[in-house]
Design goal:
This protein is mainly α. It has helices spanning 26-53, 61-70, 75-87, 93-99, 105-114, 164-181, 185-202, 210-215, 219-228, 230-245, 257-262, 273-276; strands at 57-58, 101-102, 121-124, 140-143, 147-148, 153-154. The chain has 12 helices and 6 strands. Strands 1-2 form a two-stranded antiparallel sheet. A two-stranded parallel sheet has the order 3-4. A two-stranded antiparallel ribbon has the order 5-6. A hairpin with a 4-residue loop joins strand 5 and strand 6 (153-154).
C-alpha cells in the first residue's frame, strides 16, 4: 500500500498480544466447547492473518477456500467457525454480515496503538469502530470502503483495489438462484426468507440480514422444510425461542438461522424440548401450552 505521496509504508504488524486471561472469557469457552482446540487454533491463525495485513480481513469465497486449505480444515467447518466467532463477538457481526469483513473494536484499538508511531495509518471509515478515539492522532488517514454491489465489486484499499472474490461469490449466488428459479424447492426458499425469517426476528433470536440467510441456504435446508412441513417448522422455531429465552431451561446455545434448520429435530413438538431442556435444579415443570410472546 502506498501513501498519498506514492511512497510505500508498512500496513501490518510484526506481532500481536493475547490476553492471558482469555480462557476465562465466555466466548472462548463457547468456541472451545463447540470446536475444541482446532477451533482455537483456527481463530488464532485468523487473528494472525488480520494483524499481518493490518486490522481486518475480507472473508471472501476465495479467501476462505485458500485459508482452510492452508490449515487443512474442512471449508464448511471453517466458515462455520468464522460465523460463530462473529456471533460470539470475536468479530463485529454487523460488519461481517454487510461486507464479509472480519474486524472488531479490540482489533482496531490494538492495531492503531501498535502503529501510533508510523507516519501514516489508513482507516476505512465504513468499518471504523473506535467512535472518535483516533481523531487526535495526526497519522490517521480516513478513506472510504465502497461496496458497489450493482457492479459486484468491493473497493478494499485507497488505491481502489477491486476484489474479484466478491464478483465470483455474486456469480455463484446468481447461479444458485437460476438453478432453483424453476424448481419446486424455490417454494421452500421463499418460505425461509419470508415467514420463517420474519418469525425468527420477531422472537428476538440472532439477527441476520436477509441476504446473509439467503447466501447460506442449500439444498439440505429445503429438504428439511419439505420433510416436516411449514407448520411444524414454525412450531419448532417457537419452542426453540422459548427454550433459549426461558430462565428455567439449561440450554444457552445460539444457532444461526440456517444451522437451526439443520438441528431442528431436537425442537420439534414431538421431541418435547420444554421437558428435555428443563434445568434439573428447577422444580417446576413448564406449562406445555405456554405461549412465547
Amino acid at each position: 500500500m502506498k501513501n498519498i505521496g506514492g511512497r510505500p509504508y508498512k500496513q501490518g504488524l510484526d506481532y500481536f498480544s493475547i490476553d492471558i486471561g482469555v480462557e476465562m472469557d465466555r466466548k472462548y469457552k463457547l468456541l472451545k466447547a463447540r470446536y475444541g482446540l482446532e477451533g482455537i487454533g483456527f481463530l488464532y491463525e485468523l487473528l494472525r492473518k488480520i494483524y499481518l495485513q493490518g486490522y481486518y480481513l475480507l472473508w471472501s469465497n476465495e479467501e476462505s477456500e485458500i485459508f482452510c486449505a492452508d490449515y487443512n480444515i474442512d471449508r464448511q467447518k471453517g466458515n462455520s467457525i468464522v460465523s460463530d466467532c462473529a456471533n460470539w463477538n470475536w468479530f463485529d457481526i454487523e460488519i461481517y454480515e454487510k461486507y464479509n469483513i472480519l474486524t472488531s473494536h479490540g482489533i482496531q484499538k490494538r492495531y492503531t496503538e501498535a502503529a501510533r508511531k508510523r507516519s501514516q495509518v489508513v482507516i476505512f471509515k465504513d468499518i471504523y469502530l473506535l467512535n472518535g478515539e483516533l481523531e487526535h492522532q495526526d497519522n490517521i488517514v480516513f478513506t472510504a470502503l465502497t461496496p458497489v454491489y450493482s457492479a459486484e465489486t468491493l473497493v478494499n484499499s485507497p488505491e481502489t483495489l477491486v476484489n474479484s472474490e466478491l464478483t465470483t461469490q455474486s456469480k455463484e449466488k446468481k447461479s444458485r438462484e437460476e438453478k432453483f428459479s424453476n424448481s419446486k424447492k424455490n417454494i421452500h426458499r421463499d418460505f425461509i426468507l419470508s415467514d420463517f425469517y420474519d418469525t425468527w426476528i420477531s422472537l428476538g433470536l440472532k439477527k441476520h440480514l436477509r441476504e446473509t440467510v439467503e447466501r447460506n441456504l442449500h439444498k439440505r435446508h429445503y429438504d428439511i422444510i419439505k420433510l416436516y412441513g411449514e407448520e411444524k417448522i414454525l412450531a419448532a422455531l417457537r419452542l426453540y425461542a422459548q427454550v433459549t429465552h426461558g430462565k428455567q431451561y439449561w440450554y444457552t446455545g445460539g444457532f444461526d438461522l440456517w444451522r437451526f434448520i439443520e438441528k431442528i429435530e431436537s425442537f420439534l413438538p414431538e421431541a418435547d424440548p420444554l421437558t428435555s431442556y428443563l434445568d434439573s435444579k428447577n422444580k417446576s415443570k413448564p406449562d406445555p401450552y405456554e405461549k412465547f410472546l
